[in-house]
Amino acid sequence: MIVTYTPQGGTEETWDYKQADLTSAEAELVEDATGLTIDEFEVDLMKGRVKCKRALLWLHMRKEHPNLRFSEVDFKVGDLKTEFDREEKRELRERLEKSGLSGPQLEMALKLLADDEPDEPKPVKSPKKDSGATDA
């Protein structure tokens, strides 16, 4: 998940969040702060639950301020945005297609998860240099 925090009058910060990258201590902090299991946190974060977004910001801010308490974190809701990265979108599309969901609901969900990012340009190979030998 790509997280972007732009505090009013501050500098924009963007980072990647992956549940699998959390330490057990970080996961327990999230569980204690939100009252959710780490898996419930993940689902509610995807749903846009503000308390989960606050916990996500708190985890990030604790890297520079280890003594920061959850209760001290407050932000304007519009200042924190989350979006799925390319791999997450692909995984969610695959799950949806296997889910049995059909019709307009499936079409809408797949459209929301469409990979709208351009492919990364492939490096162009430069022509091989002449070895210096000449035909004579």
How much beta, percentage-wise? 5-15%
Morphology call: globular
Count of helix runs = 5
Task: Indicate the radius of gyration in whole angstroms.
Answer: 22 Å
Q: Which structural class do the helices and strands define?
A: mainly alpha
Distance between the termini: 61 Å
Instruction: Return the average pLDDT rounded to an integer.
Output: 83
User: What is the count of β-strands?
Assistant: 3
Query: Which regions have little confidence, pLDDT < 50, spanning 5+ residues?
Result: 121-131
Order of helices and strands, N to C? EEHHHEHH
Specify the helix fraction band. 40-55%
The largest sheet has its strands arranged as 2-1-3
Region (Disordered): 95-136
Biased composition (Basic and acidic residues): 120-136
What does this structure look like?
The protein has about 140 residues and is mainly alpha-helical. About 40% of the residues lie in helices and about 10% in strands. The protein is built from 5 helices and 3 strands; from the N terminus they run ββαααβαα. The chain has helices spanning about 25-35, 40-45, 50-60, 85-100, 105-110, and strands at about 1-5, 15, 80-85. A 3-stranded antiparallel β-sheet has the order 2-1-3, with no helix packed on it. It is globular, with a radius of gyration of 22 Å. Mean pLDDT is about 85; it is low at about 120-130.
